[in-house]
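Thought: the user wants the 3D structure for the chain below. I'll pass the sequence to the structure tool as-is, report back what it returns, then summarize two notable features.
Action: structure_tool
Action Input:
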Amino acid sequence: MVRAEAGGVLFDRFKVEGLVAMGLEVGPLHDLRTRKQIADRLRAHGPEWSDGQIAAWAGMLFRFQHEIAVGDAVVTYDPPTRVYLIGSITSDCIYDEKRVPGDPFTRTVDWRGEVPRDNLSVAAKNSLGAIATLFRVPKDVAEELERALGGERRPPEIAVPTDEVVDERALLEDVHARALEFIKDRVIRLNWNDMQHLVAGLLRAMGYKTQVSPAGPDRGRDIVASPDGFGFENPRIVVEVKHRTGSPMGSQEIRSFLGGRHANDKGLYVSTGGFTKDARYEADRATIPLTLMDVDDLVKAVVEYYDSMDIETQRLLPLRKLYWPG
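Observation:
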């Protein structure tokens, strides 16, 4: 699969001119024989790029330059018309910055025909939905594309079999799980002050008013949340925030936090490093209601109340809503 850029903007050009193109204007790479050599070239070209970006592009450029062979099957996609264009590679890699500006690495293609996306199984659609610019199509999906190109069409009555609905549900669960992990990654990268304000913003989204302690000794009280904002009205929630990844809070920290509480207080202890088993036991036997919140609990709560958060809190953790077919 070679993407025709976002939204398929190069699809018509690929089709009319008989080619596929990708890449960056970093000069010819035919003399570079390894991924590392290409990565070094990219690092010199874009020193601000992350290691992940460099590795991804080095892998794709190496494959496009050296692994793809004349005669290999190739497919590209046009999102507006929902059509896959299938053909065969007919040339080695050519570097030309003028032919397709912005995508100077090209290969000529003999296009053999088109396959509507609706003619494919859900499993094939899921596989071809990857966002990478270039990737190897799984063998079973490639075979299904070839059959569809030959005129085989899935009967309407079995267009979405039961087992493929299960696959679609599993895919949604996988996307949801991955999204939560990516959000956790972002939360972990927040500094301690931003973490404190994220927790305070979550409590405000839940209907409380908050007071955030200034930097310095806080006597186990980073945030106080209450209906009135002063702690006069119940419930008065006292919050401790510990932002130490890889360092779970133990029973001693929980006892220290509980030692400064009043009889009518409610406690919330947030630890991005998690809690030991003894800490959870200590919380269960506390004399006041105490909730322990690790990073998993925090992210799930943030996602649940995100739409109700004020703009200052959302800026700490920008999230994008994803719609999925029901």
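Final Answer: Structure generated. Residues 155-166 have pLDDT under 50 and may be disordered. The beta strands are 19-22, 73-78, 83-89, 94-95, 105-116, 209-212, 223-226, 236-242, 265-271, 290-293.
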